[in-house]
TrEMBL record:
Keywords: Carboxypeptidase, Hydrolase, Protease, Serine protease. Coiled coil: none annotated. It comes from the Bacteria. PANTHER family: MURAMOYLTETRAPEPTIDE CARBOXYPEPTIDASE, MUREIN TETRAPEPTIDE CARBOXYPEPTIDASE. Residues 174-290 form the LD-carboxypeptidase C-terminal domain. This is Peptidase S66. InterPro entries: Carboxypeptidase_A_C_sf (IPR027461), Class_I_gatase-like (IPR029062), LdcA_N (IPR027478), Peptidase_S66_N (IPR040449), Peptidase_S66C (IPR040921), S66_fam (IPR003507). It comes from Hymenobacter frigidus. Residues 15-130 form the LD-carboxypeptidase N-terminal domain. Belongs to the peptidase S66 family.
Amino acid sequence: MSIQFPPALRAGQRVALVSPARKISAAELAPAIETLTAWGLEVVLGESIAGDHHQFAGDDTLRRRDFQQQLDDPSIRAILCARGGYGTARIVDGLDFTGFSAHPKWVAGFSDITVLNTHLLALGHASIHGVMPVLFHQAGGEMALESLRRALFGEAAQLIEAPAHPLNRPGTATGALVGGNLSLLHTITSTASQASFAGRILFLEDLDEYLYHIDRMMLHLHRSGQLAGLAGLVVGHFSDMRDNTIPFGTTTAEIIDSYARLYDFPVAYGFPIGHEAENVALVVGQTVRLAVDGSGALLN
């Protein structure tokens, strides 16, 4: 399947901020709105930004309606998901991407937004896995923010590097990027939002999970055959991992390695992707080259 890439943004165009998952306020987004305006963009706040329904940015109907409106509005040239949390999977099946497919636009976010990243890839469209507006100005996040700007405006992507890691498997691979949050990739298996991993470079990250959950999800990717055809594996941040009173006994990297070692694709750990300030934007669906050797790993 060929992948469609939306047109690069230009100064003067309109972008929408929406929240398809957890609730947020316009006040929390004020610094990001200033930044986007400084980039020359006109910011439109979706209905969900003011939504409030328990943990969610409005009930499912409101969040779905808001996202659909931004998909269908030809004047909106990018949709930036304001934050993650939980809830995107609850609305994705009710979205109609017919108009979007005729006139693609950038959709950007990460974490819970993995659902949209992979759903769009399954439909043949690229999107951006990158820092969200609520996190635009976190300390140490300058590289993440600049990489998002470059991706949106179609500027050349920077070379992404990771240091040497004892569990790296050397080699080179070329393939389209697929992936995101491990918990969400597990959740959407066997749904319309599942994108094929075959021949692609999978990237993974996660936050606030028990180690045995990581093992269970990696086991599922292995048993369901999703790891078998990978071209390569890139491992990002696994932040704030938890353990039980009786320890699981292995680290996150060791858990992932126990399944990756069953295959012969190159593997690299420690990439700046995920729930840390250094969260470099990746274009999901873009063909990249992964090179891993004794000195570390490169992705470009």
